Hints:
Helices cover 27% and strands 20% of the residues. By secondary structure, it is α+β, with helices and mostly antiparallel strands.
Amino acid sequence: MTNEKLAERAVKAKGWRWMPGMQPLALDNDRDWIPCERVWRTQGGKLVLPQGAIPDLDDPATLGCLLALVREVYDSAVVITQGNGWWRVETDHYVWHQDDTAPFQEALVAALEAAPCGGRTMIEVAKKAVACKHWRWMVGMRCTHRWMSGIRVLADENGEQSESYVVLPDADGNAVMTLHDCGIMGGFPNADSAYPFLPDLTDPATLGCVLAILREVRGMCSCFETVVGWRVYSAGGTVWSQGKSEGEALIKALEAAP
């Protein structure tokens, strides 16, 4: 994913805000991203930005501000380390590293997207998801854990979905172990653990699977962003649910399913 695409994700995150010193980019007449004047504050305290601007995530000052934002939204309860070709962004429930995010900026943007917002966190929404009576893990979903991340749900060794476990891929994509084998890290799917395996509700593939489950139990529906947040609509235009994120809106609709 390009840094421009990551920057577009960043400015949509609930914890995002422009900070003095950041380098904005704006589209020119040829639809190319070009640098603009750095962010500064007017005497009235208002930010001066080009319309539709995104941050330049290759710019050291901007990257430093993004680091500060991530620490801010987690109230400093985050550990960010980086070395030669490796990195790790670790919160109480999520870990992003070089094996599932590239470049380093993607790990920071993903952390910002998953940060607490509006008194509710994506972790809390994910816990509601797995507690829902209609919930099931589907092949292609991304699950997260305190000590593991970037885990894709695969079919079992026989090529069939198992209700009791799923198979994890190794670095080469080979099935090597089940989530039940990770008991020291928490069970699955009904873990009696402070760190259960949860769906990553910022992941497009996972959200697509949740939408498929919702359509199975409630019929055809759509989920899209409006001026008041994300909403799930029935085929007849009835609003089923509303949330601060796509994941929250989908899970609310799933919870309300008979």
